[in-house]
Write a structure and sequence with these properties.
The chain is an alpha/beta fold. The strands form 2 sheets. It has a 6-stranded parallel beta sheet with strand order 3-5-4-6-7-8, with helices on both faces. The protein has a two-stranded antiparallel ribbon with strand order 1-2. Helix 6 links the parallel strand 6 and strand 7. The longest helix has 20 residues.
Length: about 280
């Protein structure tokens, strides 16, 4: 049956958003791309109809919560494509707001209802990319992750933290009193997600650490967009591979899906490099 889907399109350099219906199988999304947080409104009955309890036998049902690092280049679609190429059944849902922090998502009553009333096998949480660099944000995020993880875990779901990548070398962030290099920033971000995971009994998808390893191995693959901040399609594909390794390790080892945004050769090199980095 049709599932609720929030799409966005550019108009005069800004982004506007509106509800539409789509019949995309195994996918529900609520996305707001315009900067400035406001809670995404969710039609709970429509989501419950799209994801009846329980999930079909052998199906992994994943809810991703985050911001542009989660919704750009349709990370959920890449996850589904990778899983399907390995013969693995994966359903995805996404709640994402441009520039959002998990502390903001944790105040969304609609999202908490989605977490507590739908049987998720896995929930993936992604925080603002510089939250690790501020003690105040770190403290708020600890409380937020616990608040978001609890209903999912009480329903039998696993929680994974999407540990994001650092800014690219040359970004204005470096040299302003914070981390001096991408490796410095990645070390802080990785430690931050480990501490969140330990407190919330969650796992970590170490996207940033794998990103740095692949960047060193294949400097010719552009993982960043021109802003030295957001991911290119190749960067999003790398993130999807790392997250899949936590959701479905068997599927991760054999998946060979190539999204339309990537050429097959680059996708193949990324799969090999990511598997190698995670095997170390």
């Amino acid at each position: 049956m049709p599932a609720p889907f929030l799409w966005a399109w550019p108009l005069s350099g800004l982004f506007l958003a509106a509800w539409v219906l789509t019949a995309a199988a195994g996918s529900v999304q609520a996305v707001k791309t315009r900067p400035g947080f406001e809670p995404v409104r969710i039609d709970l009955a429509a989501w419950q109809a799209a994801f009846p309890k329980p999930a079909a036998k052998g199906t992994t049902r994943v809810l991703l919560i985050g911001n542009s690092f989660t919704f750009e280049h349709d990370l959920p679609a890449m996850l589904r494509g990778l899983a399907a190429s390995a013969g693995f059944s994966l359903e995805t849902a996404m709640v994402a707001v441009g520039g959002a922090r998990l502390a903001e998502h944790a105040g969304n009553r609609d999202l908490l209802d989605v977490l507590s009333t739908i049987a998720w096998t896995d929930v993936v949480l992604q925080d603002f990319s510089t939250a690790a660099l501020s003690e105040a944000h770190r403290q708020r995020s600890h409380a937020a992750v616990a608040h978001l993880a609890q209903p999912a875990q009480e329903g039998g779901g696993r929680v994974h933290l999407f540990a994001t990548w650092p800014r690219q070398a040359g970004h204005i962030l470096y040299g302003t009193g914070g981390p001096a290099t991408p490796d410095d920033m990645n070390a802080q971000v990785a430690e931050y997600y480990r501490s969140l995971a330990a407190a919330a009994r969650a796992g970590v998808a170490p996207v940033g650490t794998v990103w740095r390893a692949v960047e060193r191995q294949h400097p010719d693959i552009a993982l960043y967009r021109s802003d030295r901040y957001h991911a290119s399609p190749a960067g999003t594909y790398l993130a999807a591979l790392v997250i899949l390794s936590r959701l479905a390790p068997v599927a991760f080892r054999t998946a060979d899906f190539t999204p339309a945004l990537l050429d097959p050769g680059t996708a193949r090199r990324l799969r090999v490099a990511v598997r190698g980095a995670l095997a170390k």
